[in-house]
Amino acid sequence: MPNRLSKVFSRSEAEKHKEAEAEAENNRSSGSTPPPSYAPPDYDAGNTLDPPDITAGFSNLRLNVKNKDSFPSTDETIAHLKLLEAFYRLRQQVGSKDGLFGINDSVVTSHIPSGDKASELLAKLAEKRWAIYLTRAVERFDAWLHALLPKAKVTPISQYDTPIKRGLVCEPTRADAPLSFENTNMPPIDVLMVWHAYMLNPRAYLEDCLRFGRMSLWHTNMPWATVASCIDSETFAYKPGQAAEELFISRVNLPWDNVADNREKTVFCPSCKAPSPVPWTTASTYDFGEKVTESNVWAAIDIMLSSGTGYCDKDFEHICSSCSKKVTHSRLQAAKFCADVDQLLYNGVNMSGTWLSLDGWPPGGVVGAKNTQLKDTRHKLLTEFPNNLLLSGLGKIIMDKGQIKGVRANDSMEGIRDIIEEAMLDKSYKRKARKSLSSTLLRGEKIGVRRMMSRYWDNSSPFALDLVGAVVRQGSFIEKMHNIDWLHSPALPSTMGRLLTKYARFVSIMADQQHMAVPTLDVDLAWHTHQLSPYGYMSYSVAHTTQFIDHDDKVAETKLNDAFAWTSKTYQRLYNEPYSECTCWYCEAVRESHTSAASRLFNGAQARAQADLAAQLHKVDINPAKSVHISAHNAVRPSDDDKYKLQAAKQADELDRAYNKACARAKKNGKKEPKREDYYYSDAW
Description:
The protein has 685 residues and is mostly helical. 51% of the residues lie in helices and 4% in strands. The strands form 5 sheets. A two-stranded antiparallel ribbon has the order 1-2. A hairpin with a 2-residue loop joins strand 7 and strand 8.
C-alpha cells in the first residue's frame, strides 16, 4: 500500500479523471457565447489574417552545429521535446488498442460499461499491453544493434588501458568513429525509444559499449537533425520513409512494425541450451471460472493480469521439450551470470558492473585539461576484487555447484548470492582474492561486489540494466512534458534558453559529491538532452565535477525528498532565485522548510529578497499539472523495508508541518493558500 509520502509522488486514475472533468467544466464556464455567424458588409478577403502557425517553434530547427562538449542548444532541446511527444502518442496508441496481444477491453466493459472504475480497469489493460510491447521492443533493439555493428564482440578490459588510444573522452579514433544516421537508415520508433532510454543511463551505457566493443556507438550522438525531420510537426507521427523500412527489414530480418511480428519469443534452456518458442503472454487465456460480477471484476482483472506464464508475465514458466527442465525468469538471470563467469574464466572479460570506478571513470582513466591523464586510484577496488573473487576458485564452484534438495544452487541469483556470501566468510579466501595479508574489505570492494550483483538481479537481458524498466520509468517524465506542452508555447525558444542556464547551474551544484542533487522537470529535460550526446556529456561532467555523473534511474522516495530539499536550498542560496517555480503545496512546503524563522530574523535583507521572489510566483495561478516540479520519474518505493516505512512517515509529518506554516504565511500576507490536493505527482499510466 502507498504510504503518505508516496501520495506526494502518485495519484489514482479517478483523481486524474476528476481533475480533467473540472478543467473541462471551467473552460466551458469561462468561455463566452460565440457571436452569430455573419459577414460585415465591407468584408475584404484579401486583408484577413491567417491563424497563427502552432508548429512554427519546432518546424525549422538548426541542428547541425554542436556546442563545446555537446552542451545542448536551444534547438536540440526543442527537437528532444518533439521526440518525446512522438513517444507519448505511441504509448497512447499501443495501450488503447483493443485486442492487442489478445487483451480485450470486453473483459471490463461487459461488466462495467463506463465510469471511473471502468477507466481505471481499462488503464490496467493498457499497462499490460504496453509492457508486452516494450519487452518485444527491447528484443528488436538487440537485434538491430547486432545488425548495426556485426563485428562487435565481447572485449577484455585489458584492451582499454590507455584512454588516448581508445578515445574515451578525447577525440575518437578511426576505429571508433561515430555512426551516421540519415532518414534512410533510421530504426523503427520502438527501437529508437529503447535506444533513447538506454543512453539516459550513461554509466551502464558506457559499460556495455566497452564490454561489447561498441565504442563507435558511444561516440554517436542522437541524430537530432534526422530525428526532427522524421517526425511530422502536426501529428507527431514518426515516418523516416520507405527506404528506412526496407533497409531495416532486410538487415534485421524483422517487420518494421512491432505489432506486426507474430513470432513467439525464443528462449534457450539454461540446462541443455536448446531453443524453445514461448508465448509472450498467456494472461489473455485466463479462465475466470465463476461468474464475474461488477463487485468482483476488479479482483478478477488483477488475477488475470498476474496469472500468466508467458515470457512477459511475472510468473514465466516453460518446460523444455529437450530436457524437461523448467525455464523461469530466475533461471535465465542465473544463466546470464554463469555465462559471464565463463567469459571471465576463459577469455578474461570482466563481469558486468566491474568496468567503471566509483567516479564512473573507465579503465585507464580519462583525459583531463591540457590532455593530461586523470586516474582514479580506487578503480581497482571496484574492478579487480569482484573478478578476483570469482577467478580464485569461486567461479568454478558456482559453475559446478550440485543440487540442493533437487535444485541446483546456481539456478537462481539467490542461490548464487548464498554461495558468494559463504565464500566471503572465509578469511583465507578473501586474503587470496584481495592478494593481501588482510581479509578486511575496503568500502570500494564491497560496493564492487554489490554493483556486480545488481547487473544480474531481475535482469536476464544482455544489457547492464533492464531496459524495459528503463523505458517504463521514462514514461512519467514523457507524460509531464506532454502536459506542460512547451512545444506550443509562443515563448518556446526563450523558455529553452532559461532552462539550459538553470541546467548549467545545476551541474555546478552536482560538483558537491557529499550530496545528491535532484533536478526539476525543466532541468531534467536539458540534462536528458545532454546525455543523448554520450561522449560530449562525459567530457562536460568530468570537466565541471571531476566525475562522470550518472543519472540514477531508481531512487527511494525518501532519499529523493531529502535531496530535493537540499538542492532547492542550495540553488536559492547561490543564485538568489527559487529553484522550483511551482506553487503546489509540496513545492511550497519544501521552500518553507529551508526558510526558518531564525534566518528571516538574522538575515533580513536576504530573507526579504527571497520573500519577494516567492511573492512573484503567486501573481499568476499555475496549474500544478503544467508546472516544473521535482522530476520524480525515477522514484521507487521499497515494499518490504520497515525502516523505510518509518522514515517515510517521518518525512510526511515534516512536510505536513512545513505545509501548515506555508498556509499560515500565505494567510497572513493575504495570499491564496496552496491547495492540498494540488500535490505533485509522477503519473503512472
